[in-house]
Amino acid sequence: GQNIDQPTEMTATEGAIVQINCTYQTSGFNGLFWYQQHAGEAPTFLSYNVLDGLEEKGRFSSFLSRSKGYSYLLLKELQMKDSASYLCAVRGGATNKLIFGTGTLLAVQP
Amino acid sequence: DAMVIQNPRYQVTQFGKPVTLSCSQTLNHNVMYWYQQKSSQAPKLLFHYYDKDFNNEADTPDNFQSRRPNTSFCFLDIRSPGLGDAAMYLCATSRAGANTGELFFGEGSRLTVL
Fold first, then answer.
1. What is the rounded distance in angstroms from the CA atom of residue B49 to the CA atom of residue B73?
2. What is the per-residue pLDDT for B111?
3. Which residues contact B6 (CB under 8 A, 6 or more apart)?
């Protein structure tokens, strides 16, 4: 089966940098996604990694190590609007479906 | 412009009274998904369509059914909602064979069961 672990909650300060970690176990790995979800809203796509290394997109970067089953999402220059839940999701398994972690609730404080 | 549209955004029903949630998409994606998300939990895949092929998750209760009459529309039917079915229901689409297989989500339908 597939299993995804990420911290439940994190707090950071406006303007700072925060790293949200995700570890996973799956067979037939076929990509790792990060989604942002504000309270009461649908998830929105942030990033995708399928090869090892860092993908940078503006203030957000995502890193993947397939051998370690590990990813992180790095948020720079934090803004209050970045307060949201960040979902790590892995595509894989026998059916190649996308499975989500429970999300990390990030609170950005002034 | 919204690309995946879910209706209604909010649905209140009584215990045991059937409910239908709808999803439409303008992306012409061939894969459509229904996820259930309860408060502070991960979205849980209920089933998905690959074109007309229906794929049910093993642990999806029989109470949940789905229909996809054409490429653009997909429906989630909850035949006899229980209190435990109160959740946000998310519809998503993707294009099979796309580089990332990214899912595009609708805004969700929040179901309350009284």
1. 11
2. 97
3. B21, B22, B23, B89, B90, B91, B106, B107, B108, B109
Strand ranges for A1-110 from DSSP E: 3-5, 9-13, 18-25, 32-37, 44-49, 53-57, 60-65, 70-75, 84-92, 97-100, 104-109
Contact present, A48 and A32 (Cβ < 8 Å):
yes
| pLDDT digit string, tens, across residues A16-43 | 999 999 999 998 888 999 999 998 888 8
Work out how many CB contacts closer than 8 A connect A with B. Answer: 49
**Percent of chain A, pLDDT > 70?**
99
Residue A76, pLDDT above cutoff 90: yes
The answer to whether the CB atoms of A45 and B103 lie below 8 A apart is: yes
Is the pLDDT at B1 greater than 80? The verdict is no
Q: Which residues of B touch A105 (CB under 8 A)?
A: 40
B29: closest CA among B88, B106, B87, B110?
B106
CB-CB under 8 Å, A98 with B101: yes
Q: How many CB atoms lie within 10 A of CB A110?
A: 6
How far is the alpha carbon of B38 from chain A, nearest alpha carbon, in Å?
Answer: 10
